[in-house]
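User: Please fill in residues for this 436-position structure.
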């Protein structure tokens, strides 16, 4: 009996030990998975804010003290330049940055163009014109909420999907202070409803550059005003201790060059007896001939080639070379000006005023030229989570920005992407000099 009691006590002790071991193991596993869950939750809170400063040339920030941009450069990275896609105008480049695709794929071949089946496009807000998937749609498709404030193409759904939050309709009178207020309101929402991708268009120096030329003091004043709003956004992110989970991009769509000599396309065509409709955007003009037979095309081509300061292309040649397309969105002829030339508009008052202006003034600001001209190059700055602080960046491609943003958000890039993420940008890089 005493032996049996001893064996029972031994079994009981073994059972207690086994139970304690099991509980300890269960607790260890629980703590392990809880820790893994916390890390995952931190990743899921990562946020990317992307500001587009319209028309800021790559060297314009160096002409004065701009504390906001200079802080980003000091604590993050600044590219030497951002080389736009052709044509170097607002709509094609905003869409290329968002889709990481060239105009030949996304289809926005200018600020104004004509689709042979659909009709005229003129600064349109309807996203259905875009033929490639934008970043905010790729994010929403993968379960990441997105918000857009006047980014080109963001105002309407794209193939049934849209950004969770979007500001419509576009209104150039809306100031950047209101955009900062909206960004902060989005950031302060509960995690369950807060957007992790925020994209917004800012005025930059585009309007001042067009009116006064790219080197005018009005351009510097415009940049100071923009930088002041950028500083406020940065300081609010500081106050929220947001930098361990937040990345900030500042880019521009194109630069700005000098336009000093107007090219009168309409007059040349009238002189050759060719009827055509013209769609001009600064340095690029689409020529849509009323009669498009080979004889008429050749006559128009000869008349236009006699004018100095530009190149005349048959659209089929540009499509075959992969320079611009699709073909159904180009005129029979595509004219590309060489700096400092630009195209006068088609109505006679604009043509007369453009000729007078080019004779009287030192020139106006023009873009749209071939991106080989460095005056067309824009800016790119980045700071915060995942940014390789201090790493030199040369001239970057607009096609590489959305893949970089996608990597930082932990999602796949847009479906039609032709670019790749910039080296050194890493979603696992949590450390930021601003998070200390």
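Assistant: Residues filled in for all 436 positions:
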């Amino acid at each position: 009996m005493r032996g049996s009691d001893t064996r029972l006590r031994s079994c009981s002790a073994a059972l207690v030990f086994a139970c304690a071991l099991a509980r300890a193991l269960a607790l260890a596993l629980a703590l392990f998975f809880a820790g893994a869950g916390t890390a995952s939750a931190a990743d899921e809170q990562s946020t990317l804010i992307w500001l587009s400063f319209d028309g800021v040339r790559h060297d314009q920030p160096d002409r004065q003290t701009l504390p906001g941009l200079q802080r980003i450069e000091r604590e993050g990275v600044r590219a030497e330049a951002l080389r736009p896609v052709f044509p170097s105008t607002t709509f094609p480049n905003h869409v290329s940055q968002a889709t990481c695709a060239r105009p030949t794929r996304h289809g926005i071949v200018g600020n104004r163009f004509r689709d042979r089946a659909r009709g005229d496009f003129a600064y349109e807000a309807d996203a259905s014109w875009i033929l490639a998937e934008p970043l905010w749609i790729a994010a929403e498709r993968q379960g990441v909420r997105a918000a857009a404030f006047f980014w080109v193409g963001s105002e309407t759904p794209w193939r049934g999907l849209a950004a969770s939050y979007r500001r419509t309709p576009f209104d150039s009178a809306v100031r950047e202070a209101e955009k900062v207020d909206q960004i902060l309101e989005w950031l302060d929402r509960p995690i369950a409803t807060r957007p992790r991708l925020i994209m917004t268009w800012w005025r930059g120096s585009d309007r001042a550059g067009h009116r006064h030329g790219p080197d005018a003091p009005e351009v510097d004043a415009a940049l100071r005003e923009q930088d002041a709003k950028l500083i406020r956004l940065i300081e609010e992110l500081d106050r929220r201790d947001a930098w361990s989970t937040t990345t900030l991009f500042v880019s521009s769509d194109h630069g700005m060059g000098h336009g000093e000599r107007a090219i009168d396309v309409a007059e040349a065509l009238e002189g050759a007896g060719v009827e055509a409709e013209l769609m001009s955007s600064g340095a690029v003009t689409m020529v849509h001939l009323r009669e498009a037979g080979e004889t008429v095309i050749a006559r128009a081509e000869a008349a236009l080639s006699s004018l100095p300061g530009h190149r005349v292309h048959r659209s089929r040649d540009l499509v075959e070379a992969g320079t611009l397309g699709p073909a159904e969105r180009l005129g029979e002829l595509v004219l590309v000006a060489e700096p400092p030339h630009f195209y006068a508009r088609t109505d006679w008052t604009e043509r007369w005023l453009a000729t007078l202006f080019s004779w009287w003034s030192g020139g106006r600001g023009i873009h749209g030229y071939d991106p080989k001209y460095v005056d067309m190059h824009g800016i790119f700055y980045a700071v915060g989570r995942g940014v390789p602080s201090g790493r030199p960046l040369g001239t970057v491609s607009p096609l590489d920005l959305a893949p970089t943003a996608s990597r930082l958000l932990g999602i796949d890039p847009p479906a039609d992407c032709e670019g790749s993420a910039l080296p050194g940008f890493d979603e696992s890089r949590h450390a930021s000099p601003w998070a200390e």
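For context: The radius of gyration is 28 Å.
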